[in-house]
Amino acid sequence: MKRILLLLALISLMAAARAQKNDKAGEPRAEVTLQTTQGKIVVELYNETPLHRDNFLAQVRRGYYDGLLFHRIIAQFMIQCGDSTSRGVAAQDFKNARGDDNYRIPAEIRFPELFHRRGSLAAARQGDHINPERKSSPYEFYIVWGKYFGPREMQAEQEKVMEREDSTRHFTYPQEVIDAYEIEGGTPHLDNEYTVFGEVVKGLDVVGQIQAAKTDSLDRPLKEIRIKKAWVSKERR
């Protein structure tokens, strides 16, 4: 019980520190509300990643995400949405065609400032073999769930990074990031690989419900889980 209370206190302190950091920057952040079939998720968009922020706001304003499936769900990992071919298609009939993924947004990877803690909003992309610059999809995004990583697990993640053949991809996890993965959870192996451009500020429990949904062998949910409506619920100004 004491450990649970301590973890809750640490999570609150880390959240407060993030909010204080944003206040010091003096730049209000935009927020987007995703009304899903499971409940509301509110995401705050980072000003540190302006290309991704502005693109996401533009897609939301034109109604792009309305009616789309969370078409890829992996428990203890993430939930993904944004393929226009999932609109009006039954969950089990969706083929993941990536029909609208026809251009890329330049990467805005800001690790270790922004990393894949639980609740992070990040942009999907194609692999390094055809996308070595790690440019992002303008449409598909994912929300991190992940799992908790203790000291041993984080040491293993660090060793994997340093064993990469391309030395330009080597990096070290700062202690602050290590602590966050132990307390909050997340997906550290995605760090420095994908652009994180926001975070869930309300409705993390809804993300938890969605990531726990039953899926088939292709990670498609067995029942339809959609964004019914998305809107900009808070402007930057």
Please tell me the CATH architecture by its name. Answer: Beta Barrel
Helix and strand run: HEEHEEEEHHEHE
- Estimate the strand proportion: 15-25%
- The number of helices is 5
CATH class: Mainly Beta
Radius of gyration: 17 Å
**What's the total count of β strands?**
8
The CATH homologous superfamily is named: Cyclophilin-like
Which class of secondary structure composition applies to the elements?
alpha+beta
How far is the first residue's CA from the last residue's CA?
42 Å
| Strand adjacency order, main sheet | 3-4-6-5-7-2-1-8
CATH topology: Cyclophilin
Query: What oligomeric state do the depicted chains represent?
Result: single chain
List the uncertain runs. Answer: 1-13
**Tally of distinct domains:** 1
Mean pLDDT: 89
Shape: globular
**Biggest pleated-sheet summary:** 8 strands, antiparallel
Can you put this structure into words, describing what you see?
The structure is a single chain. By secondary structure, the chain is α+β, with helices and mostly antiparallel strands. It has a single domain, classed as Cyclophilin (Beta Barrel), CATH 2.40.100.10. Helix content is 27%, strand content 18%. It is built from five helices and eight strands, in the order H-E-E-H-E-E-E-E-H-H-E-H-E. It has an eight-stranded antiparallel beta sheet with strand order 3-4-6-5-7-2-1-8. A hairpin with a 3-residue loop joins strand 3 (72-74) and strand 4 (78-81). The longest helix has 24 residues, at 2-25. It is globular and about 45 Å long. The termini are far apart.
